[in-house]
UniProtKB/TrEMBL annotation:
The keyword Oxidoreductase applies. Pfam families: adh_short. This is NAD(P)-binding protein. It comes from Dactylellina haptotyla (strain CBS 200.50). Keywords: Oxidoreductase.
Amino acid sequence: MTFTPKFDPKNTPDLTGKVAVVTGANVGIGLETAFFLASKNATVYMAARSEQRALAAIDQLQSRLKAIKVDTKIYYHHLDLGSIKGVRQSAEEFMAKEDKLDILVCNAGAMGSMWTPEFTYEPMFQTNHLGHFAFVTTLLPLIERTAAKTGDVRIVMTSSDALLVVKEIDYDAVSNRPANADAPRSIMTFKTFFDCYGRSKLANMWFAKELDRRIGDKGIWVNSPHPGFVGGTDLGLELNDVVPAFVRPIARAITRWTGMSWADGAKTQLYLVTSPEVPAHKIRGRYFSPRVSWFNYFKAPRDQKLAASYENEEEWKKLWDWSEEAVKKELAK
Ligand SMILES: NC(=O)c1ccc[n+]([C@@H]2O[C@H](COP(=O)([O-])OP(=O)(O)OC[C@H]3O[C@@H](n4cnc5c(N)ncnc54)[C@H](OP(=O)(O)O)[C@@H]3O)[C@@H](O)[C@H]2O)c1
């Protein structure tokens, strides 16, 4: 019998006693992910680079939780994914304060970042992929200890259908700062930025697959969701310099209007990190996206089949080895 995944927030089990980390949770899809987990009584850590933005978001979430009579703690945990040394320290600090980690949502993402001097690698690749690679691999001992006790740890690496614009990872483009990196950008360079973003999202998905393959059958369920097209988030605001000022509010209004809500955008990853269907149906190393209705309302999560070229274990392994080496070099600086 074919299995059709279903996500019903009302039937999500209570998460009391579970510890969750959501990266990039101060806005957008991550904010709604954190809210839902907290509303089910998980202890949630909002891993973010700006304490000010995170604390403002936590205040907002606490008011919403109070309104539904839920008394859960949401904590700020400092994490700047652009700095690999900082990421390592952040993961170590987390392990010093918590003795378990049940749910890890690697949701933070940047689109359109400039290649400023602090980046060794292409900025979106360094932030979206390498930062998360360093964070997750440092946390692995804690994750494995948790799984040994509970048999159920969930990890998602939030990806995007933008990965479909690239077929492979060009390691030269990721590693070599282009000669025109500081030149003013224009709308003509938009495609270049979208390719960089797509490459980082392909890396998120391949990392999830390779992580799952290496972990094997230990009760750690690693998957990669595409949230859908979600309107009015901060994603891509870094590209504002290539968009004429009068177009910006119009573009934002159009995406809010035509895209999914933040809460609907969170549902595919929430399914993967909370649904009992995941262990029951051994959902591991998969790429999920939402089925949507007219006007982009979330209907259900969907196990999305990708072309064979994306299912190449040699590529996953190559990415892992390259990333390990890159992290080692950054830490040695
Ligand atoms: N929106 C969509 O239609 C869509 C579609 C497909 C996939 N996605 C993916 O879904 C995820 C969430 O997207 P969103 O639309 O909700 O984006 P968003 O509103 O821009 O939120 C992104 C989050 O990532 C954080 N972040 C960026 N750079 C960071 C860094 N160096 N260190 C730590 N945190 C950092 C941001 O923090 P700051 O507030 O500090 O910048 C923010 O909290 C992303 O991975 C994105 O690629 C989104």
